[in-house]
Amino acid sequence: QDTSEVPKEKHDYQSDVARLRKIVINSLYSNRDVFLRELISNANDALEKLRLTALKEPEVLTGAEELNITIQAFKDDDGHGRIVIRDTGIGMTPEELTKNLGTLAKSGTSEFLARAESTDTTGTGNLIGAFGLGFYSSFLVADRVYVSSLAAKSSQTPEPAQYIFSSSADESSFETYPDPRGNTLGRGTEITLILRDDALEYFDTHKIADLVNKHSSFSSQFPIYLFTQRTEHVPDEETVEESPAEETLEKEVDEDEAVVEDVDEAEETEIKEPKMKEVVVDEWIHLNSQPPIWVRDPKTVTDEEYELFYQATFKDYEKPLAWHHFSGDTGSGTSFRAIIYIPSKLDDAYWTNPLATSSKDLRLMVKRTFITSDLGEDALPKWANWVKVVVDAEDLPLNVSREQLQSTKFLKQIRQILLKHILQMLTRIMEEDSEKFEEVQKVYGNVFKLGAVEDKRNRDKMVALVRFHTNQRNSTSLDEYLANKKKGQNQIFYLADMGKTPEFLANSVFIEKLDARGYEVLLLGDPLDEIFVQNMRVWKKVQFQDVAKAGLKFGDEADPEEEKQELEVLTEKFRPLLDWLKGQAEEVVRDVVISNRLVTSSCAVVADMFGYTANIERMMSSAPANQGSKSPMHEFAKKQKLLEINPKSPLIQGLLRRVEQLPAEDEEPDVEAENELKEVASVLIDGALVRSGFSVQDSNEFFIRTDRILRRSLGVSETAPTDTTVKPAPPVDPEIKAEDDFSFLDDIPGGDQPGVYIPESLRDQVSWEVEEIDEEGNPVHPRDEL
Ligand SMILES: Nc1ncnc2c1ncn2[C@@H]1O[C@H](COP(=O)(O)OP(=O)(O)OP(=O)(O)O)[C@@H](O)[C@H]1O
């Protein structure tokens, strides 16, 4: 209608909205069906909000009786047309129209925009699923959008007024103004999409019905009605009654024909059907008339229905990994039905602080009416806060407030029940579907380790879900490990080095003897592994033993006395070398000892009982200084290392001989021979450090010494200097010449503009923000333009 007389307020979009709209309009053509799903989901949210508000303030229900969503398509005479989506939800005040539709309040928006802007269209499709474009997806199919809204009457909005928000796809601003039609809605919001010429397919009500059935029939517990018109053929009663003359005429003709036709046919003409006419019947079709899937018998629900329900309810673009649909009784007499879903991905944010967030996706319904998705801080243990659940209780009063609810017996019981079912579900997948369990492991493997540490009550069940790589197989549980342990073995051997692959760890100096002898060693490359092991310490009465630490026992050692004696003999034999090496390594280790864990390697650096392994040392030094990484305790623990030497190694035996040949203290010193030996020792110690996962103390010194030893092995003079003359820089010259050659910039796209050049191959992997500054160095915030 004509709005030229209405005073309009013009607003600029917030810059992020402008960016978002640009992405929507330019790059999502192939995903444009999503607009309907997004608008229906908004309508549903508005209705849910109304219903929740009405629990406290029933007045909001005035204005419109039904709580529903309607969709109508109108075709204009000129072939253009509109789609109108209406809800009787909470509505928006004029201020809310501006705020909600003109700004983006969502966290992570900028990050999303940067990612969407830097990826191609296909990638963006997935991002949108993850982010939800909401209202702006309207512009995928519409040139212009009008949102007319009338807020629900409440104490805050005693006199609501129907206002319009209007914006076209190619403007960077929008307008708001009073709806010239007055109050036509009663309550709620009406979105009118003026369809683009290339989106006229959405006039087809079959298409709309299909889309709603596929993507949105689960999005709303409120009825969704679609306006349709169908043509019916009905007896033309008017003609029968009002123009008998015509009938007579027909009869006459028939009688004429009967002259030449046989009698039968003449009779048939007598009972001729009445004349039909076409009438257009208007009809509102209820699109989501099936009962919600959680109340249905699981046998009647297809996998696709479970998946679509999940995607619509939890706004996840991906299909769930698994689900479990069950019903029960809380014990205090409240019966319920529930579906638990395991998403196929963890939110990126999960690992930034896994124990800080609580679940926001436990949707509680009472008698099919949504009540809340926030069941309180500790609704589930933190490790499980990614689980998505719909639970519908039969016998709770509908008007319980959120606060009251959290203290009800029902809630306490339902939490326990849900947790029990989550664990049962995971255990069942583990026992019955190894392929699925592998998928679950990929996403949640670390979560289970965290759960075993955090959730002491369910520790045994969590540990059963945990899997590790070993030197003998790709995946084993701790129970499987114990089933495979050797006779006499009384330790669970593990090697932890965060960030390293199992293949790398399998070649570690620390497991060479264990591996050669056929013992299984857990190879732990994840930071969480060390935390898991440190917290567990013992599993089924068997201790964990870090193979990079003192205390390793195979369990089949011969008579301990005999072994002790053997060690004493060896220690005595190697005494000169042990003592001499201790002097050389005193900066690095506490002592030098004979090893029982080495086969081919000559030596290794092992953490003492109370010392740090390389892995823990790295974890400690990445912790903030105030968390102990610089404390005296830390410094002490760092020094608690032993240099273990392999008495069978020819290198060690050779070194022993050379040390024994050194002049005794009371003889004339052989400085040259001693220095050469010291150098060898130093490289040996540094090599052992590196091989054992530690870093060398001074990498420059290490390199210089290696250089000298290499020269020696090649027979090159150790003292011959390298020619170190270099061309000095020209004299100081602050002048900038105007004719400097910048022609190389011509080859770089955008090289004539200030900015950063990114090679083509890296463009989709990086993003950056550039801030323009004025002459005083203050940032300028230019208005984004579409
Ligand atoms: N039909 C509606 N009735 C009432 N308010 C609405 C309606 N549609 C949108 N809004 C308001 O506008 C806001 C922005 O909507 P938009 O769809 O862009 O994002 P969202 O719904 O918050 O998030 P998303 O749809 O991505 O989950 C909503 O949060 C809501 O406050």
TrEMBL record:
HAMAP family: HSP90. The keyword Cell cycle does not apply. Transmembrane segments: none annotated. CDD domains: HATPase_Hsp90-like. ATP binds at residues 38, 42, 87, 92, 100, 106-108, 189, 402. GO terms for molecular function: ATP binding; ATP hydrolysis activity; ATP-dependent protein folding chaperone; unfolded protein binding. InterPro entries: HATPase_C_sf, Heat_shock_protein_90_CS, HSP90_C, Hsp90_fam, Hsp90_N, Ribosomal_Su5_D2-typ_SF. The lineage of its organism: Eukaryota, Fungi, Dikarya, Basidiomycota, Agaricomycotina. Keywords: ATP-binding, Chaperone, Nucleotide-binding, Signal. Belongs to the heat shock protein 90 family. The keyword ATP-binding applies. This is Histidine kinase/HSP90-like ATPase domain-containing protein.
